[in-house]
Amino acid sequence: MSRHTCYLCHRSIHVCEECDAVYHRPRLGRCEVAHCLRCGAELDRHTGKRLERLLPLTVGALILFVLANAFPIVTIELQGLSSDTTLIGAVLALARDGMSEVALLVTATTLLFPLIQMLVLFYLLLPSSRLERPPGFVFLLRMMQAARPWGMIEVFMLGILVALIKLSNMAEVIPGPALWSFGALTVLLTVVVSFNPRYIWHICEEKQSSRDEISEHSA
């Protein structure tokens, strides 16, 4: 009984990530946000139906990610000759030209880490996953947090635009389907990645606390 009580008390406490101030976690109403009284940092917020809206956005981002890597980014036409390439083709070309480190960096920042974030978030946002804490829950949250700073699709998109502007003076540049997919993916990822994963943790804790209280009363 004492362990169960301590468990519930531990869940009702919130520690500020910025200044380590300790607070009792309040019950927030719709659209309410709790801030630290010491440093003003955000402690918690009521997510409302944001999780339900975030799931289709994540699915859309995954679809755009597949399209962006399956089709050519641009087609370059010069003196009757044309050439196009995909992101994976560009990575392979870098590796063949002796720039393996650059190829590895591009693969990690534009393919691997963004894909990890989207897949983990999709898995955690599934309704079945929110009913019960799924296997590897803590590890997946930590992995998503660790991968977040390394996803740089927006930097890659900016580099593509700069390269296209320079190439347009020498040859005819035709944007491919992947370029538009990358543009839309950049916008969607900005929305998806801005979501703080700790709110998924809080929701799982609240549901677990409710189940524990029901079990205690029924016992």
Automatic annotation (TrEMBL):
**Domain of life of the native organism:** Bacteria
TM helices/strands, residue ranges: 54-74, 102-126, 147-167, 179-201
Q: Does the keyword Transmembrane apply?
A: yes
**Annotated keywords:** Membrane, Transmembrane, Transmembrane helix
Q: Does the keyword Zinc apply?
A: no
Coiled coil, from the record:
none
**What protein name applies here?**
Inner membrane protein YebS
Give the organism the record lists.
Answer: Herbaspirillum frisingense
Please name the gene that encodes this protein: yebS
